[in-house]
Design goal:
- This protein has 4 helices and 5 strands.
- It has 144 residues and is α/β, with parallel strands linked by helices.
- It starts with a strand and ends with a strand.
Length: 144
């Protein structure tokens, strides 16, 4: 049985630190698998559903090469990993998508930055990390 680690990746410096910490965590568990995930949320036009989906698909296409690069680097380091683009067509906080994924994939540990690209500096924890900390079905490691 593998130890499943979910790391949230959005290209920010903190998410890159989270990836490095997830790699460190694989040294502590046998058969660790890192799931690198980027959440694409519905943040585009809301009046036209087809246009909103098209906008999100474009964002997913842009997010795919960087997340695949992270997965490939892990592969070269001998770390078993998966790269996932999580599409959220609702208006939920992206943390909800991470939590859903963690439940579906029996994730044992979620690693994420305290704030991502969308973070506003007025909070100690960003809205995504705060939601994950409070609602995750597993352990959560916040990287600062």
């Amino acid at each position: 049985m593998s130890f499943n680690i979910l790391v949230a990746y959005d290209g920010s410096d903190l998410s890159k630190k989270a990836v490095e910490e997830a790699k460190n965590q694989t040294k502590l568990a046998e058969d660790a698998v890192i799931h690198v995930a980027t959440v694409i949320s519905n943040g585009g036009p809301t009046m036209n559903a087809a246009l909103a989906r098209s906008f999100m698909n474009d964002l997913a296409d842009e997010a795919r090469p960087p997340i695949e690069k992270v997965r490939e680097e892990m592969k070269q380091e001998g770390i078993d990993s998966k790269a996932e683009i999580l599409m959220d067509y609702t208006f939920r906080n992206p943390g909800a998508q991470l939590i859903d994924y963690a439940k579906e994939k029996d994730i044992d540990l979620i690693v994420l930055g305290s704030r991502g690209l969308g973070g506003v500096g007025r909070f100690i924890l960003g809205s995504v990390s705060s939601q994950v900390v409070h609602q995750a079905p597993c352990k959560v490691l916040i990287v600062k």
